[in-house]
Write the structure tokens for this entry.
Amino acid sequence: MADTLRTLLGEAECEVLDSQLKDGAEVKLTHVENIPVSAELYWSAFRDFIELQLNWKRHENLKVLKGDGGVGTEISFYYNLLDLKDGQRTQRLREKNDSTRTWSVEEVGTNNLYRSYLMTIKVEETEAALARVTISVCFVSAIKNEKERRHDIVYHKVYLLGARLRDILNFVVREKLDGKHRFEMDVVCSRRKLWGVVGNFHNVSWVMGTTHAEATGLRRLMYFHNGRTLEVRLAWVDDSDYLFVYEGDNSPDVLHCKYYRGRLQLFAVNPHKVKVVYDCTFLPVNDEPLEEFKQWFIPAIKTRFDWIQGKFGESSLAADKIAADSNEPATLETTSDDLPDEDDGPPVESKLYEGDEQLTTKGDRGFTTGLRSMAKGAMGWARANVQGLVAAPMGPPKFTKGAHTTIASDNVMGPVEEVWSVFRPFGRDCMEYWKIYDSMEIEAPGNDVQGCIRAFVTSKTKSKIRERLEWRDDEAHVEIYSLLSMDPSPPVEMTNVYTTVTMTAVGEKETEVKFECTFDAGLPIAVPSIQDNQKGAYMACIHGLQQLFHSEVGTLEVVVRGASNLAVSGDKYKVDPYVMLVANDGKPAITKVCRGTQHPIWDERFALSLTSRTRNIVFTVMDYNKSKDIGTSIVDIAELTSGKEETMSLDLQGGGTLNVRLYLKVHQKPKQLEGGEKVIPGIMLPFIAPVFQSELDTIRNEFTHLIMSFLGPGQKYGLTNTARLRSHPEVPLEEMPAACIPLPTEEMFSPVKIGRLMQRLAEFIASQAQIMMRYAQAKRQGMWDPWKANFSGYLPANEKLIETWQNDEEFCRQFLQGINPMLLTVCKEQSQIPASMLGLRAQDKTALQLMEENRLFIVDYAPMLGAPPTPGKFFYAPIVLMYKEELAGGKSRLNMLGIQLTRKTGKNKVYSPETAKTHPNKYMFAKMHVMSADNNVHQFLYHLGYTHLGMEPIAVSLHTHLPPDHPIHRLLLPHFKDTIGINYLARHSLVSRIFPITDPMFATSTVGGLHMFIKEWRKYRFMDMAFPEELKRRGFDEEKSDGLEDYYFRDDGFKLWNIYKDYVTGVVEAAYLSDKDVVADEALQQFCQMIEGPGQLHGFPREISNKQLLIDCLTNIIFNVSAQHSAVNFPQYDYYSFIPNRPAQLKMEMPHGPNDMLESAILEALPDVKFTSLQVLLSYMLSMPTQTAITEMEAVKKLYPDVHETFHAQLLDLSNDIKGRNEGLKGEGKVAYTYLDPENVAMSIDI
Ligand SMILES: [Fe+2]
């Protein structure tokens, strides 16, 4: 938040004493201000600390830790939400003395910003209506960097102290005096366009009657046509919220106020219409009664306000037409950024200040008559002039065309709107695709609008270059920028350097990107080299965009026929050749293996996807048995002719000849669709089908490749840390649990298992052939019908879920019995509840009362804060409150209290069943965002992270340190069957660095999900995550003291845990006579050390000193890899397969603004069909029932038959109990919980 302000503060002229800058120095700063209300009134703001905080901006995710607003009340908040570790602060109200009117808060404990911090405010009476307020801070900074420490002091001196006092004044004037008014209006232009003007502190073209402005730091002096000036101060600006707040004091003849604050916020109604909400706070200069003042003041403001409508809007008829043409409902409320053109044309300041020349001449009401007269006369003028202003032609700036031109263009395989929106940022964001810069920033004041200047450093030459954005037209997709300076200066003088970038749609999914630069050069002979340099830079941009859009420009069909005279190495073996072929930027394809021949015949056909960057294809003949290559050959794609088949005999480097047939097919421009082909809005069948096919082919190839690569080098088990990705060097993948690489042959899947996996895959692919037909035929009576098309005769539908998923009770039930029963927590501390949710009520109780009655439950998705934002996907870190609803007959159930999606400053929006009465769609959408967050947290943390990856080091250490006849080896061995293999598969498919299929699927994308996991993994402690401990931490226990019914994960889990513990106790007691024996077991101790050390499984005991610890540790291991994994793995298909119930991602954030959203907007926000079919496929494959249930286990049957028998019998008893209970549930029409029935619990993490 404060970043923008900090930028504006820039290198503010501000003296900072050397003594204050020393590390550990106590910094004392004081600021005094006369506040234009009485001391008593001003002091009244301090009555309730919590209320004051909620109305006090700048603190994000405010929570009340204790207290009710009086002295001793503690609050916590984040200084910077994106950096939790560094940003969290806790403050306590230390003093509130009504007689001396002194108030102070202090920091509780230390944090990364301050070692100590004390802020004191003292309010003194001077005259009747004037308070003299002194604010002082005394702090010791904890910031290590001296420059940043200085910046923080400047920030306090120049901005924060005064802003604090005026925030309080604003609160008093609004809430105690009612000196406020809200204006709302729709302007027919895009939000981005209007924000481009309003959000630019230098731009006053939206202030009626101004000529220009001069901005210095946070102050802006505005000049009016009549020669008057008015100074205002920036109070707040937030680009992400399209929010701008400014204030002015004491301007009797202009504002007629001794205090004025304008808060202007923009909401998108649709891509072509913006709702402007303007809240103003005012205090009349002459203390006239507010009611009287408002009578003329509000209409006067409105005049100015309306002027904006005329100035920036187009006629509303035109807007309706635009909306109609684009099939967008005119009332659709959306926050998506729309793309109409943006002009920085002449400005306006929503407030009223003086009239302008036109007004004076035309309207006989000079500014000298002030606002009062304007209120009476100006409106007519404003309306009359609307037409003239709108009609004024606007176009790109005229510039001198240079004598020379450089042109670079190529196509990007993406829709023009999408390509443009990626390209569009003028500042740092373009480094995402334009990878030739070391740095790039928009110069302060940092708004990405027309007129802004970017400064960048090129990686190659380290030149510092500045360019100005001269023109940007989001509708025509045109941008013009000019070169301002280069440092060092180029050897040849260049002038009139203007670059025009144009994007043109050449098809539904293809865009031509064209750069055209005109310039004059001092030395004509240098022109070609300038042009080469420019062209290189432009093409780097286009290539970057192509890379982002994975543009396929064609396909290459390859038939690998055979080879002759292949080389053999040595003379002991014949070769078993196969061919791997790779387009230079693609994934490899592999032929079958021909056994024992130097003259193999494969005759296999492959289709390789070519991108514009594909230059060649590499054929490598490999020897299957020795995993080494026999020979390679490279074909240059440029030598092939599109549409013509070519037969080639390639000489292999290494000896022999490879015979191939190649058929290159470069894509034609997509044909126009016939009217009838558009089946469902947004889904074009002819385009979707190939996407499906290519994705499925890729998966199939990936799996085939994996199965082939199972032939590893031997039996050795070793741990390796994951290397960082070149594409995301900032993500410390080496911190993940260590992995077993390479895959030992022992860990290959059995042919049966591979067969089952492949069978599911094949079945699914077959079912996909029909999926588009079913989509097309899906009944369109209900809005969710298209999603049912995923189900067919082959893929069963969860009918009950489809019927009930929208109900609150079902939503809550899933936290108890669904795929992720790991987050629900008994809410016992007020500090857990966000301040904005304290007002929620149910069954006549407040949230706090529910908490006191042990009936309040919370789910906090804070881990999602650890995932960086992903373009095109929106996710939150929601907080959900639920309560135990008392029902008739002593029954109860979990039900919904409310959802808070954001953790922003001040009040956050809360969605509750109450909201649903007026805004049912927004409420539904909030619940979907919760489930989307749950989906990501479940998969990356609780499933992949804490079970699959987290447990792998134990498997490796087991094989490394415990001999096969060791009793603990025998005990554990079946619990690690196939774990290394399935993880290998996951690493190479689900989260592979080559082809991460989770990437498009999840809101966080793969890297974001892993990033989130790594942040949580740092806090993970194995023994603290043991089932009883983990539940206890969340407020649940075996005795059900939490009072919650139907939490079967808890109930069945404790029973299973106890059986496991008995079993493990039996084994340990039989294997070790005493604690001493345990300590003396060197193999066991080394087993532990490897897990905790190189394995990076945090919190695993490094040393086992007694039998009890060994029992606890082994029980924990066995429970985790069997019951825990089963509980978070096998329900996947039940809950993930119906996409609206648990979307893995959503494309839209919650719309702002006062209206409900449309159902169609929810549908639009759901992920594309191609991604959802992957979600269904994955959940289906991963939910395959286990073939190795724990009831089948025979680990210690021979070694300790009694222990085994007891264990086995207890499991069967429990299974019977659970089956009986489930029958009863079904009889009541409820959902059975089957996942922890021992017959369904897999021995190991094997899927
Ligand atoms: Fe799994």
Summary: The longest helix spans residues 920-961.
